[in-house]
Amino acid sequence: MKTKRPFQRVERMTPTMRVIHWVNVVAVVAAVVTGLYIAHPYYQTFMADPAVDKYVMAWNRLVHLFAAITVDITSIWVAYMYASGDRHKPWMKLIPSKENVVEFFEVVLNIFTFNRRKKFDTTHMDSFNAFWFALLHLLLVFMLLTGLQMYVQGLASGESSIGAWWPWILHVSTDWTLTVFGGNMGVRYAHHLGMWATVIWTMFHIYVQIWRTIFWQEGDIAIAFGGSKFPKKRRE
Amino acid sequence: MSVKREAVIKLFTAPNASVQTNRGDAYYADLYRRCEARLGELRAMAPKSRINLHEVLQDDGFDRRDFMKWASATTAMLMLPSSFTPLVAEAAELMNRVPVIWIELQDCAGNSEALLRSDGPKIDEIVLDIISLEFHETLMAPSGHQAEKQLEEAIEHFKGKYLLFVEGSIPVGEGREWCTIGASGETFEDHLLRLAKDAAAVVAVGSCATFGGVPAAAPNPTGAVGVMDVVKGKPIINIPACPANPANMVGVVLHFVLTGQIPELDALLRPKFAFGYRIHDNCERRAHFDAGEFVEEWGDVGAQNNFCLYKMGCKGPMTFNNCSIVRYNEGVNWPIGVGRGCIGCSEPDFWDKYAYERPMADAKLKAPFGGVEKSVDEFGLGMLAATAVGIGIHAAASAVIGKKSTECGEES
User: Fold this and answer.
1) CB-CB neighbors (< 8 A) of A44 in chain B
2) Which domain holds residue A212?
3) What is the separation of C-alpha B23 from the centre of its chain, rounded to a whole number of angstroms?
């Protein structure tokens, strides 16, 4: 006879993590919307409006750069949490140990057997998700470096409103992208394609979380809102 | 291994691209003394040509005042304090002391044309007439064996002293044997290497000589490259653009005459005084860019109102050059001024990566899986669509054969 097991509440995201998550969502959406405009202005302004009232490209660039700075700051937070040995210890899930690799492929099998096989602990963050999140963080660092390279091209005098150290540090940290991606235009291609990669990442991320919620019946989607998911208690 | 190491070191030690416009009084006082000494030495030397700058200027209708105005403008262009103006004027007079050998490789002679435009030359071009041009295939009277003899004599006579100006790219691929010079059938590469060996410095003029330019555009049938990919162990100055601006050629020669050294260069070996800023930074239509006022198609109301050409593919925001300040043809006009976008002609690979007359997002990229060219956005959207299709298939399959964990928690 079937026995009902009670649900348990497992906290997966602290309030800080949730704030970072949603700040990132808003910033990335804003960056994509404004970035597409900067790459190819896709709406027009009214001829009759004086230029000072419009300032459309400038606003787009302003929002884009503020979104970028926001993501940069949350990235520093995230990097800190990777390293600080937070109780979820995401970085430990990234070590290619036997345990993690097995878990990684078990998650993939779970997806492609359409949840017929589920041989890993779903209460913790699994190594597949940890890998997928790390991919985003790397992608954002990539966007940060290529973006700042384009930005510093406008600071050719070596001065900026906050001092000469700022363009200097940008040159030191991003000039290598010119060599790697083939000049100013190569960096632009790379940054633009990085945007599409970010959109693809987001699409897959949302799909997997919704899919898990439906098929695992553990309320995974609630993690990003309430911070907790609700798996059944394990049988002793 | 060591080659790899060199490459890594080079990657992370690229010269800083920022332009220092003020280096402090002590620096300039010292530089002034060194320039004076250098000019003194040059004045003691016999002029290589008997052309007198002031006579030529007078013949063309320029008086002393015009010349001094030009000298102060050129001093500013070289990013020197105004106290250097008399030195710059004197350096222009002494330019006939510096021997120049000019060779042409794979090119269209456009830079020679820019240099020599006889119709209403401005002082820049006249000053370039004064340089002691020892050899220039297109301009000189002798040809054939006579010309070659003159070249050999010039190399011998001015060993280690002459500036070698190179115009045109160098084929080093499979097509290298198609391009030879002289009766002995010397390839362009060998010719360049031989002349560069005894030069004081090599000045690559124009986009072809600097980065390969148009001959190096895909599929680059001759394996064309720029001077800096062939010549090693010599100071190289790149003056790209198609054609290179005579003002910048004069600037480089003047700097050499003044100081005996090459000007400060960026990572692509371009003089920072000319290539330190983007066209965009000093563009007269920049305000329209910020306002979001773009030309949508040729001849529309925006075009009539001098709106920004970004949507017509202007590459000003990613092109380093001073044409928005110096302009062309006696400072009369420049591409943006006549209502067409910048094609990034002073950047590497400009023909493939810049000159496509549409915004970057619409640029054609070679797809990694074949020769079909895709725009950057099409490629990104294609990847996005592929992901969406994959997700759709998985979602449909999940709906049909997926196994939901049961409510009661029994998994088998």
Assistant:
1) 292, 294, 296
2) 12-229
3) 25
